[in-house]
Description:
Chain A is mainly beta. Chain A contains one helix and eight strands; from the N terminus they run E-H-E-E-E-E-E-E-E. In chain A, strands 2, 3, 4, 5, 6, 7 and 8 form a seven-stranded antiparallel beta sheet that branches.
Amino acid sequence: xxxxxxxxxxxxxxxxxxxxxxxxxxxxxxxxxxxxxxxxxxxxxxxxxxxxxxxxxxxxxxxxxxxxxxxxxxxxxxxxxxxxxxxxxxxxxxxxxxxxxxxxxxxxxxxxxxxxxxxxx
Amino acid sequence: xxxxxxxxxxxxxxxxxxxxxxxxxxxxxxxxxxxxxxxxxxxxxxxxxxxxxxxxxxxxxxxxxxxxxxxxxxxxxxxxxxxxxxxxxxxxxxxxxxxxxxxxxxxxxxxxxxxxxxxxx
Lengths: 121, 121
């Protein structure tokens, strides 16, 4: 089956921040839509690299061991596996995430912000 | 190393249509930028799914066994492996491609439009 989707319609389908929705799959990777607002938790993914493409708003990606990067709409950043990071959105921000299907949103941390069984849109 | 890139700057760095540039890597996948213009060739990828996210212009994805899909800016389409397809851009079109690093642009066809050793931007 061919999947075609509009990012705008996808983002319109949910409100909850920090709760990515799965919009499609490419081999073992998933494309997810996420809304970010405020600061997330520090975490790392031991095996999975993670791409954030900012569609609207602005994302500040903080790192333990190097300076933060500000990612504007129309820019993307790749966070390699093993790198501890904390996404912060000082204003609401919409991002496309691309990462292996095995990726847990909170990486090595399992707490109240961990989301399993992501909804599909 | 953290890779952060602007799509606009990436697209400004080359002109040639049907010659994807590698902009980043996420595990075994690559994110590529491509400019499309006119009709490409019919081909399929036996193992690799392929995502096309249209950034500007409009892409018509033709299929042998089902009707074509028009993909507008802000929309994406996933072409599953094994599905014969032909991308057509009646006007110049910029796309983000997401696919395994093993993907050859012309899939099962090897001809003058095949590009190996993609440039990185």
